[in-house]
Amino acid sequence: MNTRSAPGWRAALPLLAWRTVTTAASPLLPLWLARRARRGKEDAARLHERRGEGAERPSSPLLWLHGASVGESQSALPLIEALAAARPNLHFLLTTGTVTAARLLAQRLPPSLAARVQHRFVPLDVPAHAARFLDGWRPDAAVFIESEIWPNLILAATARNVPMALVNARVSARSAQGWGRMPAVAQQLFGAFRLVIAQTELDAARLRALGAASAEAWGNLKFAARPLPAAEPALAALRAAIGARPVLLAASTHPGEEAQIAMAHDLLGSRLPYLLTIIAPRHPERGPAIAAELAAFPLALRSTGALPEPETSIYIADTLGELGLLYRLAGAALVGGSLVPHGGQNPLEAARLGCPILLGPHTANFTVIADRLLGAGAAIRVEDSAALAEAAALVLTDFLRARSMTSAAARIAADAGALPERMAAAIETLLPAPSSPEAGAAAGPG
Question: I need a labelling partner for 327 at 20 to 30 A (CA). Which of 35, 82, 180, 345 fits?
Answer without folding.
Answer: 82
